Hints:
Elements: H1 4-11, H2 15-22, H3 30-42, H4 51-58, E1 61-67, H5 72-85, E2 91-97, H6 103-114, E3 118-122, H7 126-132, E4 140-144, E5 155-159, H8 162-175, E6 181-185, H9 192-207, H10 214-217, E7 218-220, H11 225-238, E8 244-247, H12 250-262, E9 272-274, H13 280-284, E10 291-294, H14 296-313, E11 319-321, E12 324-327
Parallel strand pairs: 1-2, 1-3, 3-4, 4-5, 5-11, 6-7, 6-8, 8-9
Antiparallel strand pairs: 10-12
Amino acid sequence: MVTIKDIARESGYSVSTVSRVLNNRNDVSPDARKKIEEVVAKFNFVPNNNAKHLKQNNSKAIGVLVKGISNMLFASVVEEIQRMIEKTEYTLVVSYLDEDADEVEQAILLCRERKPLGLLFLGGNPEYFHREFSGVDVPCVLVTNRANEMHFENLSSVATDDIAAARCAVDQLFVAGHRRIGILGGDFDKSYTSHQRFLGCEQSFSEHGAVLDVEHCYEKARFSFGSACRAMKRLIGKFPDVTAVFAMSDVMAIGAIRALRDLGYRVPEDVSVIGFDGTSLAEYYNPKLATIKQQHQTLANRSIEILFGQIELKKEPIHEIVPFEFVNGESIRVIDER
């Protein structure tokens, strides 16, 4: 079994630094936090019980499983959850997973190791839930993905309508006059979120009388800057006359813009770009990124309120959809392709 000493040795940092990252302390450099979280995700590490954890187990621990170490939306949601938890008698246990990891398998391990009273899943794959979730016996809330069709008595959800939101994003590109539209997204055969957003793209193309040719205009990437940058270069290679790109996250969009600039393209003069999530980075990037804004505060607040209701009042599962909004930045140019 992987221990905190193994994580320290693999990351090159001290045990005390690793411990501070695992406990979400602020007195850690961004580089150290990033490296340690990568190692934690690589090994699917959940800390063993020690004296402090045993004390937490006897109090009121809430577990949070975060899929994707580069997901800036989830970082904002976790920060908001931490602020809420600090006002209560509960404690927070946060586990970071790779975006392709089996979050339900890790939840079962977390329940065995830390005995939380409830769990929050930030991101999830329905396939894993259908196959394994019966092994989780504490109240849970799936955040950003819908769980209303899973019909588990201990699973609620607070989500954005990914299909409608992605359709809205691509609609903005069509409205701006673009017809040669490329898409950067995850592997929709493996990623539920990517699949939902892909369905929204298909709907938008269809509504505007266009055909979404996956082989020609879709390029797969992980939800990280580097992967998106490389994917954008591949997309340009097979679709050199693209005039607009929808990236399925703000992180992907910014990675794509880096690639475009490396290749000599200007944004938005040569290629327009729209992202998804509405992170603070999108607001302060140059150019200011057009994006679909998810309401991270509402997602966090309602997920905690619903989870507490299930834990303390034994309420029935609740499934809510949180509205999104289009934020018109500076990264879309209006053209006339008629």
